[in-house]
Amino acid sequence: MNQTRTFLLFALMFVAYLLWTEWQKDYGPHPQAAAPTAQNEAAKAADGSVPGAGTPAAVPTDAVANEGKGQLVTLSNDVLRLTIDTRGGSIVRSELLAYPDEPVTKKNPNPPPVRLLDDDPAHFFAAQDGLVSNTGAAPDHRALFQASTTDAKLADGQASTGLDLTWSDPSGVKVTKRYTLKRGGYVVDFDQRIDNGSQAAWSGNAYQQMQRVPAPKVNWFKAYTDPAQHSFFGAAWYSPESKFESLLFNDFTKKPLNRTFAGGWISMQQHYFFAAWIPPADQNVTYSTAIIDPDAATPRYLVRAFGPAIQVAPGQSVDSTARLYIGPKLQGTLDAIAPGLDLTANYGWLTIIATPLHWLLSQLHTISGNWGVAIVLLVLIIKAALFKLTDAQFRSGARMRKLQPRVQALKERYGDDRVKMQQAMMELYKKEKINPMAGCLPMLVTVPIFLGLLRVLSESIELRHAPFFGWIHDLSAADPYYVLPVLYFIVTLLTQRMMSTAGMDPTQAKMMKVMPLLFGVFFAFFPAGLVLYWTVNGATSLLQQWWINRSVDRAHEKARTA
């Protein structure tokens, strides 16, 4: 009976966790807009909502329709290929060369790389930058630049490569944008040099922003089976005071961001990958969100970093810099780029559990060379660490199973008198030295670990397209032949058979019989890595329970014949 209660409690807590994560998306705590300040008012002016003298020039929200695109040029290193539109110098396409869009197979040996930034209207996602000024000419993200080359590639032996875009005004103001990529890096170093060749002082502001459309809608089956549909998709940012915060696209109107702080960054997030603008850490930057054409069929969602004022005297030059990360959520490496960037894995309240689990899983992969083997080893380590707890749980369950005939007799004796029934059962447990709550303590430890590992296996890009053995070519996708879900069904069925149903009401007993089938179907479309973990975990628990049942049976038989 104790094992039955534990099994049902786990199922309830797992479903509750799924409901909690969905509730958090719609009703959970979100950051509140800061009180109005001078720089917040500047951000409003940048959106065109607060006109008036003494405020920075407004940032245009999009390109004028009849201007169209400029020339498309490319900049690439060994892991990243960027397509840049000379109209504004916007990065309109990014291909992650080390990450194929689909698993590599014999039938598909060379799948195209993942495209994060994309100029396809259905998946539009662009990184933009520019300058605005109330005192002189300035190139925003609509201005037409001239490129130094049409294709800048990292050559053998080179540590970095760059691409220059230039813009000039008849007044004498000249702006040169330089994008630089280093070997093996996903960080784009961005520099804007403002050369003031005019006769008057130039003042203005630099800004960086990203625009994208929401993910296309999918049918119910893909919404359930595709792990990407359960991952966070929206904007996120970091500040030294509030740390990592996020905002779903649906909340852009209800809880817009408009805050000023130094040492932060702003990003657009999706499953496994993200892009983030990282201004200089010593600058007070105003971060904001907005919706472009909210009534359109496909509105665009915008996040912006609006920098402090820049002053350039006649005949002088000033550089405005920023960095743009376009790449995977490689945990353990991102904080070296900017504080808090590792938090883009977005484990939420499970971070304190998921982060060490990911570290341990990574170390086991280093040893084994296979992520599936690393998952199996992780199961064994967790089972060994929790052995004492689960041993107490299983022994309590085995002893209570032995008491079921006596419990049933007490029920027949006391009928509907629940008070006397409970008193008699407590006396029985006390006499047999059984703690009926012994099975609950392990749940307080094992359930958070399982939920933390669920987040790790769902969000860790290292498992994306990672093969195991045989038919499993991708641990982040469902088992194509449902072998692991069937094995899990068998393990769950055998576990259920070891649980006594004596004393259960008929409805509860029937529910326990169909539970293995329900869980087998439930896991059939989960990522193979997660099902592998739970199958191995269930098999080891089954063996442990079988061994304990045998030892309890021997002890009981020995005591009976003594």
Automatic annotation (TrEMBL):
Record domain Membrane insertase YidC N-terminal: where:
73-360
- One Pfam entry name: 60KD_IMP
**Residue ranges of domain Membrane insertase YidC/Oxa/ALB C-terminal in the record:** 371-550
Highest taxon of source: Bacteria
- Primary location: membrane
How this chain sits in the membrane, per its record, is: Multi-pass membrane protein
Which residue ranges traverse the bilayer? 371-390, 434-457, 477-495, 516-536
CDD domains annotated for this entry?
A: 5TM_YidC_Alb3, EcYidC-like_peri
Q: Which UniProt keywords apply?
A: Cell membrane, Chaperone, Membrane, Protein transport, Transmembrane, Transmembrane helix, Transport
Bias-annotated ranges (Low complexity): 33-46
Q: Where in the cell is it found?
A: Cell inner membrane; Cell membrane
> What InterPro entries does this protein map onto?
Membr_insert_YidC, Membr_insert_YidC_N, YidC/ALB3/OXA1/COX18, YidC/Oxa/ALB_C, YidC_ALB_C, YidC_periplasmic_sf
Instruction: Give the residue ranges for region: Disordered.
Output: 31-61
Instruction: Describe its partners and assembly state.
Output: Interacts with the Sec translocase complex via SecD. Specifically interacts with transmembrane segments of nascent integral membrane proteins during membrane integration.
Q: Function, please? A: Required for the insertion and/or proper folding and/or complex formation of integral membrane proteins into the membrane. Involved in integration of membrane proteins that insert both dependently and independently of the Sec translocase complex, as well as at least some lipoproteins. Aids folding of multispanning membrane proteins.
What is the similarity comment for this entry? Belongs to the OXA1/ALB3/YidC family. Type 1 subfamily.
Task: State the name under which the record lists this protein.
Answer: Membrane protein insertase YidC
The organism of origin for this protein:
Luteibacter sahnii
From the UniProt record, report the name of the gene that encodes this protein. yidC
